[in-house]
Amino acid sequence: MNNFTYYNPTKIVFGKGTIARLTELVPQDQKILITYGGGSIFKNGVYEQVKAALAGFQTYEFGGIEANPTYETLMKAVELVKKEGIQFLLAVGGGSVVDGTKFISAAIFYEGADPWEILSKNGKIGKVLPLASVLTLPATGSESNPNAVISRTGTQEKLSFGDDRLYPVFSILDPETTYSLPINQVRNGIVDTYIHVMEQYLTYPVNTPLQDRQAEAILKTLIEEADAILATPAQYDARANFMWCATQALNMLINCGVVEDWATHMIGHEITAFYGLAHGETLAVVYPSVMHYKQEQKKAKLLQYAERVFGIKDLPEEEILKQAADRTEAFFRHVGIGTRLQEYKVNATEAAGKIGDRFARRGWKLGEHQDIDAEAVGQIILNAA
Question: Pairing relation of β-strands 157-162 and 147-152?
């Protein structure tokens, strides 16, 4: 097991009716900015619950944060915060709203020339504004980690950043808020959660049996609960299990002492930046290709994964390795997500060239062995045609 430091200060308030607890959790003597996305919180009753809980508080609102939150939109929120002297940020929505709110928090006090440098040049984050969240879409784990992913429309970029000061102070997780979600968002959330786990789990062994079994538990729960999650929106137990899986998948616990990958996410971000696919869709396309392409390097964990998660054993090794990747892709398709670029009308040859060129210019090498270079990225994309 590798050395690690574990730290997670986010208070999780989980369960039905917990939005009402905002009254006791939000600082009463501060100006609060409520951030949200496209307006779904007005249709599912979440907005009314939040406003009722914060009756008497001095609140402001900023909506319109996109599914892939953009720098251009978020900078408008930064201006509002500075103008009104906002002291506390409350993200109400899915992971994109939480991610965007983290950028707002970091950008307000940024002392460099342009807050985009936080993402593009690893610009130093100084003081931040405290934030919290009311989660309505399980997927990113942003409600309990310090990371965020932001897009910039003008340059067709999608980059990530993180800082321990950006852990939410608290996050409210009420599974009932997911009942009105569009089915595509639920599907994407399941895939996003699954691959968050895989990027931390499916690398190479470093003797972390506890972390491995924690990861496998999340994967098996998602597989077992997927049909109930998708079939009956008002199935509280299934949605509760889904929401908790998504948080546990990326709350910095299962990656303690392990080796991580994240190549799929980095490639997927570029597909979104150039072609506009949803995050979960890009992951479903790229990950099976990565599993096949890096089969030899991931062999030990692939064999373990095949047996423990899918029960595949007593076959020739090559067949087990192939079935592990095929069964993973089949699960994504069972959930209802396309796994080939052609299904999204994306030309794989063009995408391989554009994204490969971008990785070459950045000099990025990805994966747990840092051996996925620009050429390998292009081949992975071609194999996902």
Answer: antiparallel
Task: Give one DSSP letter per residue of 279-327, joined into a string.
Answer: HHHHHHHHHHHHHHHTTTTTHHHHHHHHHHHH---SS-HHHHHHHHHHH
The whole-angstrom separation of Cα 63 and Cα 167 is 21
- The highest-level CATH class for domain 184-383 is mainly alpha
What Cα–Cα distance (Å) separates residue 82 from each residue in 78, 104, 129, 346? 6, 10, 11, 41
User: In the chain, where are the structural domains located?
Assistant: 11-178, 184-383
Q: What is the CATH number assigned to the segment(s) 11-178?
A: 3.40.50.1970
At 10-45, the pLDDT tens digits run 999 999 999 999 999 999 999 999 999 988 899 889
| Distance from chain centroid for Cα 166 | 15
Distance of CA 302 to the CA centre of its chain: 23
Q: Tell whether pTM > 0.90.
A: yes
Burial class (CB in 10 A: 0-12, 13-18, 19+), 44: middle
Helices (runs of H) and strands (runs of E) counted in the chain: 14, 8
> In angstroms, what CA-CA distances link 172 with 94, 239, 243, 255?
12, 15, 11, 23
**What span, in angstroms and rounded, lies between the C-alpha atoms of 288 and 276?**
20
